[in-house]
Amino acid sequence: MSVGKVAAGDLHDLTSVADELVTSLMFRPWGQVSTSVYETGRLVSLAPWLTGHHERIDYLLAAQRPDGSWGAPDGYGVVPTLSATEAFLAALERGDLGADPRVLREAAGRGMRAVAPWLAARRALPDTPAIEHIVPFLVCLINGRLTVPSAGLPGAEPLPLPDGTGRERLERIRSWIASGAEVPQKLLHALEVAGPAACGAPAIRPTPIGTVGASPAATAAWLGERGARDPHEPARTHLEAVSRRHGGPVPVGLPITVFERGWVLSWLLRAGLRVDVPPEMVADLRAAIGPAGTPAGPGLPADADTTSVALYALALLGVPYEPDSLWAFHTGTHFATWPGEDGSSVSVNAHVLDAFGGYVARRPEASSRYGGTISDLAAWIRDRQEPDGSWADRWHASPYYAAASCALALDEFGGDSSAGAVHAAVDWVLDTQRTDGSWGRWEGTAEETAYAMQILLMTRWRDDRRCARAASLGLAHLSNHLTSGGAEHPALWHDKDLYTPTAVVQAAVISSTHLARRI
């Protein structure tokens, strides 16, 4: 069950639409997520025995762009293009029955021609998880398959490795896993980069539901050929369930239970929608938060982002829970997504600010424990604002997501010192609205329009006439999306490739539609 096309009359009672969305979270507890070219390509290569193999090949063929690439612009297409290309070469090498070798060879050749110039130009790659491992892993696989006559592409030159990547890191990972030493949980999500060393790795065990690293690719890599021999192996039955659920193609991450519930509830409740939240969902959200925080779902490490949003949602629900588990992610200057993170995220720190601020607002006696950190966090976020008033982030391709996360947290919990930063964000949103009333990085999207409207309508400048005019134009765009069923939301969220958490995005659209209708 999910929320799709909405009758025009129902827009006047968006609470019922929001209630339907919340109910859908209980019916699909693993999460509602778009399919992934990268992850689907890995299953074509690793698990041809799995239900839906030919549907996965058809999906990849249909998703190829006219220029031969897969995925989004600005380097986001490198990982999915490499994965789909290697998948077709693997199918050619095996001589998969039912797959037209001429079609696969042509598609693989077009993929090679699309990605080779990007790699050769030594351009910077997007900051997506494990990209420094995934790109050399796939490049080496492709180059190796080019030497096999059945998979080779006449005249194709080996692909170069981009700057900052190489085989050395991969070899260290493979040696580590083969040694039987404990594997960091965050590495499990991209276990497939370990190649043959991943298969049956002695220190790795699937979760009770059968997933390794909340990733179909990682699970298939751990299974290896045992998956073909034993249909009752729990990891295989998990992959079967994920494949059947999506008709063959698979998402990049599943399950995302806590992540999805935290974001959906916080978007809706922050906008003032009075939704009917099942008490067992509230209890589950509370129970998920342990001394080290909570992961997005089983198989993933605990992270500050999911922990913070879950805590903020609980505060909005009227059951605030002590946020002391977040100290495990404190670096001294800011909060890391997980301990040992390379780089930093403004949206994660904005969500930590929400969690601390939301708790103190409902437990004023806690201000002595969190007040100083709240002020420090607000200053850290302000210092990372771009000159044009936006923010950029490592967990989302769109600056509108980062700006909404930061502007809303600063406006509510950042004090008067943050007023200038919030006003600059409002001006940036007003300056970047498209002629059709939408907002977006590459094109106008309902998701990014929703984030822009939140900045206009949920901060202290909500009564500015300019904000009302811009929001009314944005409302027409969102209303049309809801009542028409709209196109699928483009993938903008960072994982191994871009993806869409569809219920989360729909919650943002519903929330901003509700806010705009109130004015």
Please give the number of β-strands: 0
- Strand count, sense and closure of the main sheet? none
Based on CA atoms alone, the radius of gyration comes out at: 23 Å
- Tally the helices: 21
Oligomeric nature of the chains: single chain
Q: How large is the share of residues in beta strands?
A: under 5%
Written description of the protein model:
By secondary structure, the protein is mainly alpha-helical. Helices cover 53% and strands 0% of the residues. The protein is built from 21 helices and no strands. The protein is globular, with a radius of gyration of 23 Å. The mean pLDDT is 93.
Provide a quick synopsis of the model:
The chain is 53% helix and 0% strand. The chain is mainly alpha-helical and 519 residues long. Helix 9 runs antiparallel to helix 11 (234-246) and helix 15 runs antiparallel to helix 16 (367-383).
Helix and strand arrangement:
Layout: H1 14-27, H2 37-46, H3 53-63, H4 78-94, H5 101-120, H6 131-145, H7 167-178, H8 185-188, H9 216-223, H10 226-229, H11 234-246, H12 257-270, H13 279-288, H14 304-316, H15 346-362, H16 367-383, H17 399-413, H18 419-431, H19 446-457, H20 465-484, H21 502-518
Which tags fit this structure?
519 residues; mainly alpha; 21 helices; 53% helix; 0% strand
